[in-house]
Structure formats: C-alpha cells, structure tokens
Amino acid sequence: MSRGGVQGFQCDRLSQMLAARRLTQAQLASLVGVSPATVSKWRAGAQAPEREALDRLADVVNVTPEWFTRPPAEKVSLPLFRSNASAHVAARAMLEARMEWAQDIALALTEFVDFPALNLPSRNFTDPEQITKEEIELAAAECRDLWRLGRSAVQDLALAIEGAGVVLVREETGIAQIEGLSAWSAVLGRPLVLLSADKDNGYRSRFDLAHELGHLILHRHIARPTDRERHKELEQQAHRFAGAFLLPAETFASEVRMPVTLDDLLLMKRRWGVSVGAILMRLRALKLLDDEGAQALFKRRSARWGAKSEPGDGDRAPERPRLLRRTIDLLVDENVMPLEAIPRHLGLASHDIEMLAGLPEGYFQGRGNVVQLARIRQSADAPASSASAPSTVLPFRDPRRS
C-alpha cells in the first residue's frame, strides 16, 4: 500500500508507461531526477511520488499528471504473437501497452458514441486439435456471409472488419518483425487488432489483418501456448483462415488456369489483393497444386523476384482504419467536445492519440473537413436510427439494432 505522496497514484500505470516507452526503471529515474530505488517503490506501490515529482514524471513521458491516478481498465486478453521467440520480450510488452492505450481511447469514446455491433462468427474451440481444415473453410465462409461480402474480392477489408465491431489500429511501431497482434477486451465487449505500418505493403497488410481475424474467430477460447509446435499450429490455422477468407474456394478456384505461371499469378494478385506467395499457399491448400508443383513455383518466384518482394507491391496502398479517427471527428463536428479538450480528456499526448486513432500528424492543432461514420450516442429511450442500405462491405451501423 502506498505511503505518502499523491493520493490515488496507480502503480500499474507506471508499469504500463515503462513498457509503452520501452524505458528501464534506471533510465526513467535518471530522466525524472530520482533514484532507481524510488522508481522501484513507485512501481511496487510501496510509495507514491510527491506532487512535484509526479509533474516531472508526467512531463518526461508526455502524459498528464492526472493520467497516473486513473485506474487502468481490465487488461486485454493475452495476444498471440506471430513470432514465438523470446528475443522480442520488450517489443511485445510495448505493443501490449499500446493496445491497452487503444482500449482506453475506445472506452472513453463509447461514453459519447455507439460503435458498430460485434458481428463475428462464434466458435468455442478449446484445443487446436479440434480445428479441422474443413472447420476453417466453414468459418471463413460464414464470416463472409455475415458481412454480406459474397465470394468476390474484398474491396476494403479494414472497413469490413471495423463494420463488424472490431477496433482496428495501424501504426508504425519500429518493430518490423511483428506484423500484428489481436486481443479481446472484456470492458469493450469486442476485440482489438493492432497492425504494424512499418512495411508499406497493402497486399501483406491485408493478409496480416485476415490472419488476425482468424485468431479472433478460431482461437478466442484457446490458452496461449508456450510450446513451440502448438504455437506453430495456431499460426498455420490463422494462415489457412486468411487464405480461405481472402480467396474463397468456389470463385477463386474457377479462375485458375492450368498450368499455373508466375505471370498469371501476378494478374490474380492485383484482382484479389493478395500476394503471389499467399496465392501459391492457397493453391496448395485447395490441392490445385501438389507440394512439388508449389515448391517449384516458389523457387521460380524467388529466383525471378527475390525472397522479400514481388512486382507491383507498391500498387496497392495499405487500407487505413477509420472508426476511431472518424469518431473523434464526429465529437468535434457535433460540438460534443472541443478539439483541444480531447487530449486532456484522454490524458495521453496528442502524438500518441494521433498514432493510435489514425489521425494526421498535427490534427489537434487544426484539421480539414472529414466524413462521419460513427453515431453520437442517443438517450436510452430514443428510437434507433435506420440502418443504411446493404452494400458490398457492411456499413457502420447502430449497434442497438439486432
């Protein structure tokens, strides 16, 4: 229990901040001008900083002093990272902290607006051994049906996922090895996905997003593995889901011309918005190519273009999240909250909010006109507004409608 200092200081906030800023206790102590032992006591909850020290602490890490007195929301579920290597421990902690900040932002915004209702297929697998290839194909098809996407190429996967009630964040993390992560938020009653924007490749970003969607649907009730082989199995299942969702068997297979050539695959890449490498994996999964044929094409692809890039990688811009950004736009447009009051209300630095909400740099110093998507929350007895007409991508809807 804290002794002395500012009342209500939340030691968990300090741990969260150290992770988000990738600072050690000793580094923070040096910046604030206190001893490492003092920071250790703050973090353990044995002592709270005095007002002057709290002001210095907040200034150093660029939050409001009051932010440290806000009890953090319940943690999101443990994310499943693409790489199971222990070398990325600090990087993982940073990304988990950033996701918790995204949860804080979304939670604060739900005081004023209604986000789209959660609309994901429900699966109750508790062991990856229960998940067959057929189950993955069915889950991907059901997801498309729920979102009214048909079986053609998905035009904007980010919009479809946000329309289904998922909170999506895409930001530069400085950690190119970790393409994305996803987790469930109990306080929001919906999942969050954080995608890395470090690789500016729209094709890979779409597949990464579909991969995380697979984790959310297939692995929600499966404990995060520590065993390498079990972890690999979950990753392979999410990969198969991404292929099945982005390249539905019945329509995709009908377009494949045999024998398959790399030039044909480049045309399919542009049509479906999926890399040649991912298309090859899907062809193998559908047994349109055997292992030997797929391996031969992978080798040809590597010899012709190299292992890390393909022609046309820059042709498709990565899809951008809209929900958090346009919700903040709506609050300002409807005079619910002045622009300059939003960072103070959230307690975070303007730059952090801009990064997590997909806002342009300098947004809180002024902005242009924008398109509104979210809806201002109505009183409990007010009638729900009409849902917009169906389109190829599920529109943002009033979540009170069934």
TrEMBL record:
CDD domains noted in UniProt: HTH_XRE
Annotated SMART domains: HTH_XRE
Family matches, as InterPro entries: Cro/C1-type_HTH, IrrE_HExxH, Lambda_DNA-bd_dom_sf, Rad_response_metalloprotease
Sequence ranges of Low complexity compositional bias: 380-391
Region of interest: Disordered: 380-402
GO MF terms, alphabetically ordered: DNA binding
Coiled coil spans: none
Signal peptide residues on this chain, from the entry's feature table: none
Stretches assigned to the HTH cro/C1-type domain: 14-68
Similarity field: Belongs to the short-chain fatty acyl-CoA assimilation regulator (ScfR) family.
Name assigned to this protein: ImmA/IrrE family metallo-endopeptidase
Annotated source species: Ideonella alba
Lineage start: Bacteria, Pseudomonadati, Pseudomonadota, Betaproteobacteria, Burkholderiales
